[in-house]
Amino acid sequence: MRVLAAMSGGVDSAVAAARAVEAGHDVVGVHLALSRMPGTLRTGSRGCCTIEDSMDAQRVANMIGIPYYVWDFSERFKLDVVDDFIAEYSAGRTPNPCLRCNEKIKFAALLEKAMALGFDAVCTGHYASIMTDADGNRELHRAAAWAKDQSYVLGVLTAEQLAHAMFPLGATPSKAEVRAEAAARGFTVASKPDSHDICFIPDGDTRGWLAEHVGTAPGDIVERSGKVVGSHEGATAYTVGQRRGLGITVPAPDGRPRFVLEVKPKENTVVVGPKEALDIAELAGSRISWAGLPPKDAAAEFACEVQIRAHADPVPATAFLRDGELVIRPQTPINGVATGQSAVVYVGTRVLGQCTIDRTVSAVPVEA
What we know:
By secondary structure, this protein is an alpha+beta fold. Helix content is 23%, strand content 28%. α1 runs parallel beside α2 and α3 runs antiparallel to α4 (97-116).
């Protein structure tokens, strides 16, 4: 097959590209230039698309003997990831930009260009596996190394995208083995730190970045009853589950701490309450996708597991489609769910699909 290897400049994508070559594929490496500030260099281990990363990727491509290109996707990245991030926070939601990047950039924009150029598949260094059922339908599954599993951030992939995706690291037992393999191949990225945080906020100051791009305005901090208990300087600085730095001036009658339960940008208020009110008994979203074949009758309640963060534990649940929403009811309440997050649904190790959370129902009534 003709394979386009997405090379971020990290150790995972380097080994994935090398394995694709050894598997006999005709491989071309490509690094995606996503930053609108191309002179920016890596700060510590933050980011994944700097000039330094591009040079690291090129060195690996030269060593494994494949052509290498840099493609400028900065405009598409700004529109589909950065602007989406700003819009979601402006709406009081908590987005996952890495998941959106996989959906809109690596497996939409990149894949579209790859197909137009005659490639058969896009190869990445994600830790996830693709399997086929008895009828030959492709399915997305967790990686062998659950500690490194990245199937959650790939939950937005569709059946068509899975048909042209390749994850050579899916069956690898550990990240340590990948690093050892990279060292044995002589790759200088073998000991390179993993990237973390949000790549377009390289200093890690998300609060400051949002204040600059979304703006701030003072408003009220209220209880679920509507009672004002404090004030804030900007609602976007608050996240669901937050306890510290709330600016509450009226103590709770029982003396217990309050937590952020909801951010309401239209009213410019932050809603707080007791910790137990963070427990969510139901969540639902309308931005739904299926990673392969959907359930035969999604309107009928089916058993599954739901995961609401990349590194969260899956929780047994039931789910069903109703009025254009995927409604998910965990067997035990999930703590601290925010709208804008993705709820990825699993059946065993298989990723069935996902929805972007639009609403939640607390397990604790407002009167409590």
